[in-house]
């Protein structure tokens, strides 16, 4: 079922420009099988030893297991389809992959595929839908600021310092009480505000964030970071306080994502700083499995590692709720916001916020990289280069008449809403989706079309002219869709007309 999103403006990681230290060679490669040979990224083995309390041999064995089992998880997820209940690593060395299913008849297939089977009552899709319902109930409350799908227990978990109050709020929702578990917790989410990933950059004269990953868009170079770091149009300077770039897009709350286009004095590289003068290569953006090792680079605390705890987490900050973050046990502190999260050589996302610190320990949440790339039409810069994405669908302003459904509403400056009625619509067949937005002449409104991919909302088409009038034409497959109506500037009424197959 579909999920909501939130938008954040914030601080980013800095991409080192002009000069970058080359990564030192590693003598022994990680060999998972005859088809997989990966050098352990410089600094990653040492950080895993320190943060996960492993020996050098154990850290290397863990990474080998994660590489080997990632392809197993991908294949079984696709084969199980709607029965899939999630997957996770177990053991200090991630030596076992557990795959959950709602159908016991899937057990032989899972075992034959190289994983351990676990039979559960609820599919991952059902758990995601339950989390969506709980988010609706708790989004305006600080009684349960952290909520996530826990595939290990086959439940939605809510962390709260006032469990009884949280239980009362959830009781008013339509979710099955057996599906949700409220846990007493002192976890207090806060934003970590304070072109090689992890380096500092500055917004204005004092606000500092960290660079995430280098990206391209057409002929523009830049980097991604957290949305709460800065608003669209905000200027940035680099770690050396030299003029750097301008925020081209920023979303927070609902999501926490942004990207900055840099000037010609900065040369983006497919690297992340490893905290000791070296760099780690970025080769892709494959999503890591729950329980996998992950490392973070930030301008305040440098390089720290841990494991992925949950993939689908909703966080209510004082500034608003952000959905679909990933929760980790990696520590972070203010100023690390926007910094890189990487699993071996695969970009995972940018730091959003956290609880605790790197002295006593804590947890950190990151915005997955995939949503950032699709929202803004960006291409991740990798060691194999970057290919500009295809051009967006043609758009043109106009009067919104002749559509099968018409909705009216109002927006205030900087506000965004989801239509229809803060929910979604279902298209049971493939075909043409068309939409028209007509706003007041004094405003600048934008329009996005999003599709549910069984895990998250993905922006599939956008119309972002400097006017209040937008049009979208998109040919898509059957599924769940929704429109996001955004006020880039100005306030006033709007009309949204749309038709679907």
TrEMBL record:
Annotated CDD domains:
alphaLP-like (cd21112)
Span of domain Peptidase S1A alpha-lytic prodomain: 122-176
Residue intervals passing through the bilayer: none
Which keywords does this Swiss-Prot/TrEMBL entry list? Disulfide bond, Hydrolase, Protease, Serine protease, Signal, Zymogen
The protein's name: Peptidase S1A alpha-lytic prodomain domain-containing protein
From what superkingdom does this record's organism come? Bacteria
| InterPro entries xref list | Pept_S1_alpha_lytic, Pept_S1A_streptogrisin, Peptidase_S1_PA, Peptidase_S1_PA_chymotrypsin, Streptogrisin_prodomain
Q: Which family does it belong to?
A: Belongs to the peptidase S1 family.
The source organism is Streptosporangium oxazolinicum
Which residues does UniProt assign to the signal peptide? 1-27
